[in-house]
Task: structure prediction
Amino acid sequence: MKINEHFLDLKDSYLFATVGRKTAEYKRAHPDKEVIRLSIGDVTRPLAPAVIAAMHKAVDNMSRTETFKGYGPDQYCYAYDELLDTILASYARKGVTLEKGEVFVSDGAKSDCGNILDIFSVDNTVLVPDPVYPVYLDTNIMAGRKVVFADANEGNGFLPMPDERVQADIIYLCSPNNPTGAAYTCEQLKAWVDYARANNAVILYDAAYEYFVTDARCARSIYQVEGAKECAIELCSYSKTAGFTGVRCGYTIVPHALVRKGTSLNKLWARRQSTKFNGVSYITQMGAAAVFTEEGEREIAENIGYYRENAKIISDCLDSLGIWYTGGKNSPYIWLKCPNGMKSWDFFDYLLENAQVVGTPGSGFGANGEGFFRLTAFGTHENTRRACDRIRALLGK
Ligand code: PLP
Result:
């Protein structure tokens, strides 16, 4: 027996564990001080009433022989028509036409980010932005693929563009981005689509935060860019869109037009999913099917609007202090430059000790994150406002 030794190449992830430990230590030493967390990457608002009603109805259906459901339907990898129809309709509203067979429903974008690699050879070179959502990097290290980095930095607004000198076969793009909050315009994405097509590469486009986009120039889907269906797979999630982090549902688009050396990647993914996956629970699928209905969209827009207001409170605070940042406008994340050239962890300690506010050090997302810091809009209005008052009082001195 030999283990997969590539796992030994992974760096231990201490980021959130260290944030948690340092916060707990501070609280123990200062029980009289109230700490506010602007480090939360998870949603806090409850599910939309339309989703809850649909899930209740689905539970009732499971209680009667006539309406009971077992495994999902085979035709579309265990996804129900009711759900697929709403996903197609949501794409149509973005100006993108898809077919049911191009949509694969899953238990979330994180699983699919890792699982999709099953259909690619380990010989491919992978291009990953730095800083990055760690899943892209770690899943490829586990498989033993060669990884090269696309530099995201202050100079390019944390939106790296293709470099013709770099040869990559698989390209990860995430927009709006975690951790930087930066979002590509359709015009910028066109350059990536052109690069991918010229280099025979495939883009894995993570659209987990697309519902936060407000700027009409920014992409809601990579398929809004001409030619993207021939070179891109899109990973989507109900987590941040509709508060499904604890429910678990997402969908991945593998267009029929995505073909390499005569092989349809859609067919490979369908084969992979039907072999290794047995679908998302009926109750979850019915809840998800309520999201992109008229009522559901109105209700999720309220929750997203709530987080957007928090993002505005934070960005207004940074604007008033003259601090450079990305995100906050089309994203729940705000990525700021630590003042006075401070390093990420030094700024973390400074903010915790002097304002009792917790954020996430940018260096935890990659070398280029050093000197930057992530705040999130997933808290309550009250805490976000109070945290910003404290930051203003401290940094405005
Ligand atoms: N992709 C990005 C960029 C994320 O930030 C996250 C979660 O934070 C995910 C995917 C995971 O989404 P899901 O909850 O659908 O697995």
In short: The chain has two domains: 5-46+301-395, 49-294.
